Amino acid sequence: MAAVVQQGESLFQSQTRSPCYYSLPESVYFDVSLIPPDALTAVNAVAGDAKKRQMDTFTKDENKDTPLTSYFGTKIAETDIALRAGARGPTVLEDFHNREKISHFDHERIPERVVHARGAGAFGEFKLHTPLTGLTTAKILTDTSKVTPAYVRFSTVNGSRGSADSVRDPRGFAVRLYSDEGNWDIVGNNIPVFFIQDAIKFVDLVHAVKPEPHNEIPQAQTAHDNAWDFMGLHPQTTHMQQWIMSDRAIPRSFRMMQGFGVHTFRLINEEGKSTFVKYHWSPHLGTHSLVWDEALKLAGQDPDFHRRDLWDAIEAGAYPKWELGVQIVKEEDEHKFDFDLLDATKLIPEDLVPVQNIGTLTLNRNPVDYFTEVEQVAFCTQHIVPGMDFSSDPLLAGRNFSYFDTQISRIGINFSDIPVNRPVCPFATNARDGAMNMTSKANRTAYHPNRFDALPTTAPAQGGFKSYPEVMAGIKERIHGPKFNEFVSQAQLFYNSMSAPEKKNIVSAYQFELSKCYETVVQQNAIDRINLIDHDLALQVATAFPSVKVGEAKPNHGQKSAFLSQVDGKNQIFTAAGRKVGIYILPGYSYAQVEPIKLALTAASVIVKFVAPATGPIKAGNGNTQIAEFTFENSRSTHFDSIIFIGGDDDSYPKQLKQGRLIHAVREAYMHLKAIAATGNAVSWVTDICLPGDFSPEVKTTESISLENGVLFAPSVGIGAEFTAKYLDGLSKHRVWDREVEHIAA
Ligand code: HDD
Predict the structure, then answer these.
(1) How far is CA 164 from CA 95, 168, 246, 357, in A?
(2) Which of 205, 539, 677, 732 is the most buried (most CB within 10 A)?
């Protein structure tokens, strides 16, 4: 890349100086030859996307080359013992290094996010494949030749920054696309609707769902009186309640979640015509969830379960992908629905307006430094680009104020200067000063217009952002549109669309949550609300609460959507790819039984992990070894989508299996509805010791493979294509729902 930064100018200045660079190519503001070598670690001017190249210029490996210095460059000879008067004497104030070190540490934290404090981020790219020509002028939605750098932060909502990943909560799904026309942030959730309709209620909502103020309990959950008091008193939460009591609120992985922009937005075309749009992200791995018992246990067994899952997948090159889909509604059709498009507690059923997929998001790069790249990322719903606009959704309007505002107290007014927040397109503002301003701005004026040919100038002719000139007329009053007052219809639609096991999980979730409420009035209000959705649901939930009464049956419209169930919904994807399987082996295991399974699973993009009494090489009966990464003690069945028990070459092998931890692993995975497999002489151990009475006796003796209750047995056959194909099929189904249905019947 040519040296193009102007004489005497730092690289930093060249990126941010006033906008005479507006129309110059990217090479103008990245000149690696001019970057001081110690300012960079992994600068590769050619490789990587524009965002990576930009971030690299701000990345520094402090363990490399330079000896330890003070923050201002003085080499330090001693950093482990403070300066003191005599070996046992007082520490002296003079020790600037000691003071600097402790003082910086004292100020290391910034306030955690008021909501969505716990999160994980990754970089990637977005590629449009189906242009929305004629609907918008936004290049990111019309130019299929462009690969746009992307960043996503997933989060829980309720918990603190160090809380567990697997709690029951909506998940934040905040996407930033560093487009050529500016950053576009879609700050969404994995649930397409929200608790409330108006941003003014957000403060009450968050105060109610967060830990109760007197004792700061419970952490990261809504299972408490205040949360359900709020929900009982706010009919507008009825629909969202269904989603958070469903399996959607305990996703299996960030990689297996849908994302939704939630609000109705606008697209604006060349003629200035507006079209309504809702955004959807659909995961290539399908939308799948944990089971509740698993989620509860994982909160302790691996609080980083989702963060680790995302990190490991990206490190392994198994890059998660989503389709960006749009639901398009013509401006003239705005009022044809029985709900208001401006009401964020309602979705547009896909049965009415199909989702059209238009592009693919891929996450392919983990952060280098979590604090600067995940904690300091600052999303704002108002970050849109020309060719788009907002609708008058009152929830969105408040968000457009709140995000910018919160970043000021969280990070500071110059938060846009932080590398992860910078656009990759040229940018120039007349903003000046403020705390921690990082850029020396060489332009002599910071107002518009000015005598220097009016730079920075506005760019209407170059497609500068213009608000959609919506015709507005109305009386100034505190009121919503009339359709905002219907709260039950879509909650019923959701419940009616669930499969039998999903309905059962909703009942259990309500029972769990309300059992943690100690005030009967709270439980009663909640049951009254559930009764409006479905009488039978209310009766089932109420079995756990003898002091509450279920009112008279109210009508349920009986309608279903084909798209909402994760078990049998249209467009759901079932694949073994990306799943994590634990293969349990003990010394003397049969190498001949392991090897074909390992090869077939790896070929199907399954993540295979070996679990053994110890980590490191584990010897098979034939002397070969296999490296185990997990031990029986440091992992649980909850860490895996499925577990496999391999038999041993010797008849004494099953004796080694007779230990509580392993028997529990089989029982637990079985209870969590996971596919299980056993080979050779591990089969009779599963049928006789772990799960006696659940299988027919033949599965132990048959010469062929047998599959019962979602457990695959190969007692005496070689492991070949038939076994691995059947196993992969079972794994791809995500859960053995029949097992749950049997339990429901029981
Ligand atoms: Fe929000 C963060 C999603 C309503 C105020 N919100 C935040 C994040 C996500 C959402 C994903 C985390 C961003 C990140 O990873 O940094 N919020 C939503 C969705 C909503 C919603 C999908 C409804 C459709 N939010 C909402 C309202 C308000 C806020 C109505 C305020 C009136 N949200 C915030 C915030 C946060 C935030 C206080 C906390 C930290 C931050 O913004 O950067 O401003």
Answers:
(1) 40, 10, 19, 33
(2) 677
Q: Which residues line ligand 1 (CB under 6 A)?
A: 113-116, 119, 153, 155, 172, 174, 187-189, 194, 199, 202, 262, 344, 377-379, 395, 398-399, 402-403, 406
* Nearest CA among 589, 711, 694, 593 for reference residue 643: 711
- Closest atom of ligand 1 to 113 CA is 40
How far apart (Å, rounded) are the C-alpha atoms in residues 359 and 141? Answer: 9
Residue 403, marked binder? yes
Calculate Rg over the CA atoms of the chain: 29
* CA–centroid distance, residue 20 to ligand 1 (Å): 35
Cβ burial of 412 (10 Å; 0-12, 13-18, 19+) is middle
Name the phi and psi angles at 82, rounded to 5.
-75, 160
Give the separation between CA 554 and CA 528, rounded to whole angstroms: 11
| Alpha carbon distance 527, 659 (integer Å) | 44
Q: Can you tell me the distance from the alpha carbon of 295 to that of 291, in angstroms, rounded to the nearest whole number?
A: 6
Angle value at C-alpha 664, between 663 and 666, nearest 5 degrees: 70
DSSP 89: S
> 403 alpha carbon to ligand 1 midpoint, in Å?
7
116, 234, 263, 734: the active-site residue: 116
Query: What is the number of alpha carbons within 13 Å of residue 107 lying toward its C-beta?
Result: 6
Give me the residues paired with residue 178 across strands: 183
State the distance from the centre of ligand 1 to the C-alpha of 288, rounded, in angstroms. Answer: 24
- pLDDT value of residue 36: 38
The beta strand positions in 115-223, using DSSP E, are 119-128, 147-156, 171-179, 182-189
Closest residue by Cα to atom 18, ligand 1, is 188
pTM of the model: 0.93
- Cβ 219 vs Cβ 133: under 8 Å: no
Give residue-wise pLDDT tens across range 447-505.
988 887 666 777 777 789 999 999 998 999 999 999 999 999 999 999 999 999 999 99
The CA 330 to ligand 1 mean position distance, Å, reads 28
pLDDT tens by residue, 639-659: 999 999 999 999 999 999 999
Q: Which two tokens stand for residue 529?
A: 């609300």
